[in-house]
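During the reporting period, our protein records have gained a structure token line. A sample record is set out beneath this paragraph:
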Amino acid sequence: MAPQRIIHIPADSPFLLANIPFGIFSTQSQVQHLMGTEHIRDLKVLVLEGIFMDCKVTFPSNVLTHMTLNAFTALGRPTISGVRTYIQSLLSQSSSPIYSNPSLLERCTIKQIEATMHLPLNIGDFTDFTSSKTHAKNTHSGHGHGGVDADMFHPPHAAPGHVSTILPSSTPIVQPVGHLPTSASPERSYSGPLEDRALDDYPLDTPYFERMPAEKTEEHIFGVVLLNDWSARDIQIPESLPFGAFNAKNFASTISPWVVTLDALELFKIAHDIRRVPSYFVDEGDVTYDISVNMRVIPGGSVEREMGVARSCLRNSYWTFRQMDTTSLCSLVKQRKHFPNRMFLQDSDEVVFTACFPTRGVTRAEPYPQGRVGFGECRGVVLPARL
């Protein structure tokens, strides 16, 4: 049964009590990083008041006061699930110490408009997968490299990402310049791939070279965020062969600030389409999630001209989170189309990614009992190159 709502949450919010995402934020009055859920509830305040002493799972609650989520995610999925369930009870029961203590409720409640969001974790690595034929067709044909190999998923195609330039949502993105030997002008072929990203945290004592079967990877996936892996296509076209993109994609990647846990996604699991995979990717419990992903562009920052330019669903991905996690620390899905009258982004354009689970799923006629669950926004505005 879905949790009861004691606090008021708009019906169209992506962060209902059935969600409970985690993130890191700061305010002007408290400059250090804090942890909370999107309402926003400051978990650090609750820890200092001893509220988590009544949590049914035993864990070092001081991890909820750290400047990143890494120590919390390292506790493992059973502990994270227990803490999440306890937070739901705190927010949904009238007998909760939050609601019986008005002073505590005021101190642990932060208005979203007063908060600055930060990267939720220290990210050590991420991998960019070719995850669908649509993704491959858009990439290959757009770069003038011909059609798509029918057997292009054997072996899987992926490339390491650039973790040093991962930025939180709403950080302005400055166009790169000067990488093409034939031009000293700013690069104009600029686009944003539409992606989901799974965030993992393997225990520190995990041995190197240890195999991770696909069916066990969910034990190590903390949650999912949206990611815009910005691309300078002018640069990427000559770079793509024989080695792949480097300068074209190393200047910025934007992620949404709230991490949605796998527990929040559990009800939205659907069977994945049967397809041929390498032996080390075979997964008897082959499932994916009914996640709809959308991209819209606000040309020149003019809301009146806002347009939807891409839409996809995670079930279009050839690989599942579980399979991609056997070989890397992330995963994604891409599918995009160009918006009318021009092919690429321009200065002052703002790109916004959103994703949610529909109130009615592709395999369900009845509404999901907890309603809409979403990821919030992953957004960034394009600024001119600094010449």
Summary: The CA atoms of residues 212 and 222 lie 16 Å apart. Residues 1-5, 327-338, 361-369 have pLDDT under 50 and may be disordered. The first strand starts at residue 23 and ends at 26. The longest helix spans residues 77-92.
